[in-house]
Sequence to fold (396 residues):
Amino acid sequence: MPPYIHPPGGTGLPPPIATINLNRYVFYVLSLLATWILPASSCPPSCLCSSESLTVDCGGRGLSSLPPVHLLPPGTRSLLLANNKLASLGATSFANFSSLEELDLSNNYLDNLPAGLFRDMSNLTRLTLHNNSLTVMDRDLFQGLGSLQSLDLSLNGLSAIPIGLLDELQHLRWLSLVGNRLHGLERAAFEPLANLQHLQLGQNPWECDCNLRDFKHWMEWLVYRGGKVDALECTLPKDLRGRDIRSIPVEMFNYCLQLEDENGGGSEGARSGQGGGPPCSRSALNPSGATPVSDNNGSPGVDSPSTAGGGGGEASTDCVRARYRPVSVRRAIGTVVIAGVVCGIVCIMMVAAAAYGCIYASLMAKYQRELKRQPLMGDGEADGEDREDRQISSVA
Fold:
C-alpha cells in the first residue's frame, strides 16, 4: 500500500468518513426539494404566468404551435392563447387539464379541431374560438364539457351546426354564432340547451323558408322562458329581406305543411324529407344515455333511454330521424271555436233573413188580395145605384 501523500498546504489529515456521508445526504435533500419546487415555479417560455390568479398568458407571441403545456404551473385556471398563428391542434393537446376553467383560442388560424379535443377539461366554463377558420365541426368535439357556460363561435365559416354537437352542454348559458355562413338551423341541435339564456345569431345569411320554421318555434319558446335572442334578419326570400324572423307571423309558414303533404305522399318517412326507413329513437341518436328535450308545447322533458332495434343500445345506421313538426293545441282549439261562433252567427242571420222574407212575402200577398177586392166591391155598389136611378126615371 503506497503511503498517503499530503496535499500541499493541507493539514496532512484525510477527510473523515462522517463528513463525506453528510455531504451526500445534504445533496440528496437539495435535489429532492428542487424536484418539488421547480415545477411549481415553472412557466412555458414566451408566456407570462401569474401565481395569484393562476393565469398563463401566451397571447400575441406569434406562436405557430402550442407551448410546452407540461410546464404549466399546477392548478392553472386560465390559459390564454389568443392572437397567435395556431393552425392545428393534436387530439391530446389538452390532456390532463382538469383544473382549467378558461381557454381562449381566439384570433388564430384553426380550421379543423379533432373530436374529443376537450375531453379532459371537465371543469372548463368558458371556451373562446372567436375569429378562426372553422368551417365544419365534429359532433363529438365538445365531448366532456359538461360544465361549460360560455361558448364563442363567432366569426368563423360555419355553414351548419350538426345535430349532437351541443348535446353535452346542458349548463351552457351564453352562445354566440355571429358572423358565420349559417342559412338555417335545426331545432333538434339546440333542444339540449335547457339553461341557455343568451343566443347571438346576427350577421348570417338566413333563409327564412320552411327549413327555418321549426327553429323559429324554438326561439319563441326560449324567449318565453326568459332567454334573449338578438336580431335574426332574413336574407331570402326577397320579400322578407331585412325583416326579423321573430316578427314574421307564423301563418306565413302554413304553406310548409302543404308542401310536406304534397311531397311526402302521405308517408311519415317521406314527409320528414328523409326517405324510407324506421325512425331513430333517442337512444340510437345518443347511446350514452337520456338527453333532455322539449315537447311540442315547449316544456323541457327527458327521454328515457331505450335500445335501438330491441337490444345492445347501438345506433342503427338505417334509421331515419323524423323532423319535428310543431303542434299548437291551444291555437287549433281557438281557431275551431272562433270558426264555430262565426258560422253560428252567419246561420242565425240567414235563418232570420229567411223568416223575415217569408213574413214579408205573406203580408204583401195578403195586401195585394185585399187591394184587388176593394175595386170590385165598389163597382157592384155603383151598378146597383145606377139600376135604382134608371128604375125611378122609368116610373116617372
Observations:
- DSSP finds seven helices and 13 strands in the chain.
- The first helix runs from residue 17 to 41.
